Amino acid sequence: MMPEISLNILDVAENSIRAQATFVAVTVDVQPEEDIMTVTIGDNGRGMTPEEAANAEDPFFTTRTTRKVGLGIPFFRQAAEGTGGSFRIDSEKGKGTTVKAVFGLSHIDRMPLGDISSVIYTLIVFNEQIRFRYTYTYAEKSFVLDTLELREILGDDISLREPEVSAFIKEYLESGKKEADGGTDV
Amino acid sequence: MKSLEELRAIRAKMQGRVGVRAENEKQTRVVVGMATCGIASGARPVLTALSDAVQEQGLSDKINVTQTGCIGLCQYEPIVEVMEPGKEKVTYVKMTPEKALEVLRLHLLGGQVVAKYTLSAAQDKTQ
Asked: Which of A31, A88, A91, B127 has its CA 20 to 30 A from that of B87?
């Protein structure tokens, strides 16, 4: 199990990267009134056939050759379903994959969201070639970071890993989240 | 809240002094395993600690911190591999941010392999 939901998000988004996605959309939608939290990770990677998608849920199936088990998706499913939520994978060969996990927000077994801003930061800064769009919603308020916007400002010759730029991204993510949820622990 | 205007200011300030920082053969590569096994064992803070330290100390011309998938040694995660040009790869296992910074200081900057954290040290212990 992952100790934080944000690490499930990182893990599944790494799958998108390995599936050669050029665009990855991550959304975290917290709705206290309805008592749910919805997480989606969508990509335009190579996608899966229905058979491959079914395999992705099987811990003893993996496409990698370095080990024989693949626990990323089963971990995520278990984390969601254990809170009375739901989990699904929609995928189309050649089009991309979307993973959606719904959590019971106040359920005792729900893992904390954890340091989502750091996870998004890690994804963005270490995978510059990929466009990420991150949306964090708390009740009515949303914060969106689209790396396409960052690129438009920076041009092509400044790396996101330049200290000033990466420091900005980190603070921008943290302040955006705080603006949306008022610093509530999710 | 911070605004993207600040990024515009950063861009203006950096203009002119940024060369293309291509990866080159003289660079040391530091690779952190970031598959399910690595992430579940705490690889993310290790990656951030290394990358932040390299940036803060102005070492990014010499050291390139990147991530990779599963290396196949899941029981030893988090794993950090150090690949110096012309030298054999050194695999550090069961890393924490603190140990990784020690590796940065002693190995990457000091040139001394931190033997106690290497894969072979860990394997000797279990035998």
From this structure: B127
